[in-house]
Amino acid sequence: MADFSGATIGVTGANGNLGRHVIQYLRAGGAKKIVGFTRNPDKAADLAAAGVELRRADFSDAAHLGGQLAGVERLLVISTDTLVGRAELQSGAVDAAVKAGVSHIMYNGITSPYPDADPSAIIPNSHYWTEVRIAASGVDFSFLRNNLYTDYQIPAAKQAIASGALYHASGRGRRALVTREDCAAAAAAALLSAKGKQVFDIGGPEALSADEIAALLSEISGKPVKAVNIPPDALIQGMVQAGMPAEFGGVMARFDVDAGKGHLAVVSGDVEKLTGRKPRSLADFLKAHRGAIVG
Questions:
Q1: 88, CA 20 to 30 Å: which among 94, 109, 132, 177?
Q2: What is the DSSP secondary-structure string of 153-185?
Q3: pLDDT digits over 116-129, tens only?
Q4: Taken in order 60, 66, 69, 73, is the CA torsion positive or negative?
């Protein structure tokens, strides 16, 4: 791989959890010029103090975004947290980047993105069509297809241990959960070294079923935890009763459905290929956070 540490590297969502970690790894990797894009630069003063150039950017204002992208050579587009019109917003950002002269676009998507007419497939749909827009642009690209974050297992694990049941709708499906830290390290490494047109599957070291995750929770907590497979509608109903908006509950349940179809079971060596280290396992992560999940 090449060395692009001297290039002007941009990161959208710079003030978010993933963006901040990516910038941290870029700095550690020797990046000379980092531009962080955020809707509220005033809230990222610490990044500016660390030498990151901050520019205001909003995907909903593509005309303004194009001007802000001036001079950026390599750009990481971190998917927005907006659900409505997500693909359109991100495609607009891609068009603005191409028009501004960005030569390599990297995009944080999801494992096995696909198009689906089902309204609940907002996440895979948006990632799929954003990748299509990038691929059709003609510029070089790196698709960083992140699996589900291990970090999100902390509240789920806490609830499962407390109740003794890990409710899911994924059947025997598996998912190669990956830490946000590993995703950030891989993204920074790609920004500093990847060239051409590539697809990287960013996942954990193994794909686990709900039964295996429940067994792991039992081992860590010393309490019995059983995986209970229920229909997606029942899973959504439970999340709504717990206070989650129905639309978001449908999106979350969709991850279980996709896991059941095998979409999230991809295990690759791409994290190690990019970073030089193996991704962290779910077991190691949960053991390190035992205090947060065991009451």
A1: 177
A2: HHHHHHHHHHHTEEEES-TT-EE--B-HHHHHH
A3: 888 778 899 999 99
A4: positive
- Distance (Å, whole) CA 94 – CA 62: 9
Alpha-carbon distance 286 to 226, whole Å? 17
* Average pLDDT score, the chain: 95
- The rounded distance, in Å, linking the Cα atoms of 292 and 295 is 7
Distance (Å, whole) CA 22 – CA 18: 6
Closest CA to 91 of 70, 110, 77, 111: 77
Residue 295 confidence (pLDDT) above 80: no
Q: Residue 4's pLDDT is what?
A: 97
Residue 254 to residue 227: CA distance in whole angstroms: 18
pLDDT digits (tens, 9 = 90+) for 5-61: 999 999 999 999 999 999 999 999 999 999 999 999 999 999 999 999 999 999 988
